[in-house]
Amino acid sequence: MSQTSESESRKLLGALRDTMANDRAGQARMDDITQLIAQSMGTDVCSIYLFCDDDTLELCATQGLNAEAVHQTRMRLGEGLVGSVARTKRLVNTDNAPQQRGFRYMPETGEEVFSGFLGVPIQRLGEVLGVLVVQSRQTREYTADEIYGLEVVAMVLAEMTELGAFVSDETGVGALHQRAVMFRGSVGQEGAAAGQVYLHEPRVVVTNPVADDPEAEHKRLNDAVETLRMSVDEMLTGAGTGDKEQKQVLEAYRMFANSKGWLRRMDEDIELGLSAEAAVEKEQSAARTRMNEVTDAYLRERLQDLDDLSNRLLRILTGQGADTGAEMPEHPVLVARNIGPGELLEYGRKLRAIVLEEGSVGSHAGIVARALAIPLVIQAKGVTTEALNGDQILVDGEQGIVHLRPEDTVTTAFKDKIAMLAKAQDRYTDIRHKPATALCGTTISLQMNAGLMADLPSLENSGAEGVGLFRTELQFLVRNQFPRRSELANLYGRVLDAAQGKRVVFRTLDIGSDKVLPYMKPQDEPNPALGWRAIRVGLDKPGVLRMQLQALLRAANGRALTVMFPFVAQYEEFTQARAALTKAIKREEALGHILPENIEVGAMLETPSLAFAPDAFFEDVDFLSIGGNDLKQFFFAADRENERVRKRYDSLNVSFLSFMEMIVDRCSKTQTPISFCGEDAGKPIEAVCFAAMGLRTLSMRPASIGPVKSLLMRVNLADVKKVIETARAEGKMSVRDDIAAYIRSLG
Ligand code: PEP
Ligand code: MG
Q: Tens digit of pLDDT for each residue in 95-148?
């Protein structure tokens, strides 16, 4: 870039910053800016277009076009050259605009006399706020230097817009992050809650996009990059030879942190007058735009890494840490891109609701949210860019909808919804102690899933007959190191105390896949869901399993004990695990400890293979429980954490229901008690269909017991079975519509 264009650019940015400092109104400021840019670039026209709603751009200020067109000329996203810049997030540079494909003539602007056209998006972190355009009479294309200069100016305009520099009635520009916005995501956990945003990782705010002293900014950037490099190196050393994926991310960090191209571009931005943090953000914005364009999963991941790295760099430069010390609001609603189960457990029940930009139903964070009975909406795209700490937020976990900074009317309607749900809850309380008996007279045993001590009061409140699944790994996930045997024995003992004689099925440690213990060496596995997890870890690392079994035996302290092994894929794994238990019992006996009065030993059926195990297996186990979350992912070969594929396969798919029926038939031949404890058991329609397929015990999160029981009491399971059989005979893929119609017919 030439010296003259550099100093010209710095002069222009300096002048723009002065417009920020003066106390002119928003419109006058924008007018000044268009004039400054046109003058500095020697163009006939400079115009600013900003979004006036989600898909309409408005001409907000111009130098060179008809003044009357300001706030009159509007175009939809994708319409004309300006609309196309906004939609594609890409610049348009043409020497003959009227001839350019997509050009739309706006007579009120008088722009047909201008041939040369350069439009660049005004964007912040990949989000387009408007379009900045320069035009000239002359038939000319703009040079690379001019384009680059205009992009830098657009970046400053984006920051100014973000900081509210153009807000006024006259401009019609409202302050950003103040409008009501609705996000449509997916249901992670039902329920509704109102509260205030609490960002898991607040974004960095750049308050000084323009800087006078490029030397000082280069130094700030270099120092920050050096600090960043050192911290990445430290992380890499810390990671050792462990997890391949984690290492891959860190290597990518290191590659970017040393990337000459990345650093050079930021240095060039600084030369043109941007501050170091604005330069980082400009490149981050460009990377985000690319991220939305590339379809290659690997490349997207690397761009995601660059985004994370840019955030780290911004935090170093601005001193704004991930923990900004923002106080937790009274009714916190956690907003995050994604979150692990351990981190979520740390927040615990303080949270009113959770909204994730990514996330998936089958993830263990989802399971933790459900265990905590906190409404969860996942896949709420853009929520972390839009939400600010403390914003009012309404989370509708029933519909997967989030209202940020809602209008009063929405808040009122929402309150009605919360009241309605509370009323339904009251109805469920009324039937809490009644058996879940269907009209045909069949009674289904409804049990609850748990994992925390705090879940136990729900045993009484929900009317559950027992704990059908106690996920012991949650206790391991909340700690920084392996819990001691005595700690575990104490906890399990308290669980049994709280259960007051009701049966509690303790599932032994189910780690691996996405449930990674922070203090255990991560595994280098290409497919963790199919990898070293659950009982496979237990059998290969007998010390941990032994310790847990001893803790369980001591906790029982003479009471009945029920133990279930997770993810058993073949008979032998069960016999080996049970042998470990037998050995532990013998040892306890030898040590003189009191033994449980009765021990039941079961397995989870989570892989299709186990449904085809020999009869001897079915005769040998004391009980089985279908882990539908895992079983469904393996049955359909669709990752439970991948929303795109997970959603394709309905749990009411006839093949899956037939598979359930087959498992129930096998169990009835050997009289093996069988239950279902995956998330689907807690969905009323699914629960009714499983019951029609012959399952007599369902275990679910406590909040689902009321709705499931309420529906079960209204249906005749023989009729439900008939509906399923008819749908199956007709070759239907899913029975959902037919069952929904049957339920409607009940009135
Ligand atoms: C299941 O797979 O259905 C199950 C209950 O286990 P988890 O969800 O903990 O893997
Ligand atoms: Mg499972």
A: 998 888 888 888 888 777 889 999 999 988 778 899 999 999 988 889 988 898
Alpha helix ranges (H) inside 186-296: 214-239, 244-257, 260-271, 276-293
pTM value?
0.68
CA-nearest residue for atom 1, ligand 1, is 627
For 367-376, the pLDDT digits (tens) are: 778 777 899 9
The span from the first CA to the last CA of the chain, in angstroms, equals 74
Which residue among the candidates 364, 403, 667, 689 is catalytic per the annotation? 364
Contact (CB, 8 A) for 566 and 534 = yes
Which atom of ligand 1 is closest in space to residue 679's alpha carbon?
A: 3
Mean predicted confidence (pLDDT) in 326-342: 86
Paired tokens of 583: 């050995």
Residues in the chain: 747
Residue 619: HSE in the Cβ half-sphere, 13 Å Cα cutoff: 3
At 579, the amino acid letter reads A
Using pLDDT thresholds of 50, 70 and 90, give the confidence band for residue 253.
confident
Q: Has 677 been annotated as catalytic?
A: yes
Q: Read off the tokens for 691.
A: 């019951």
Which of 131, 155, 171, 133 has its CA nearest to residue 29?
A: 171
Q: Which of 506, 510, 535 to mutate to test the pocket of ligand 1 (most atoms within 8 A of CB)?
A: 510
**CA separation for the pair 281, 306 (Å, rounded):** 11
Report whether 373 contacts 191 (CB < 8 A): yes
**Residues whose CB falls within 8 Å of the CB of residue 226, separated by 6 or more in sequence, listed in order:** none
Angle at 663 between CA 661 and CA 667, to 5 degrees: 115
CA of 427 to the centre of ligand 2 (A): 32
* CA nearest neighbour of 660 among 713, 581, 735, 714: 735
Secondary structure percentages of the chain, helix, strand, coil, to 5:
50, 20, 35
The secondary structure of 373-433, three-state, reads CCCEEECCCCHHHHCCCCCEEEEECCCCEEEECCCHHHHHHHHHHHHHHHHHHHHHHHCCC
The string of DSSP letters for 659-670 reads HHHHHHHHHHHH
List residues near ligand 1 (CB under 6 A): 367, 469, 471, 510, 606, 627-630, 677-678
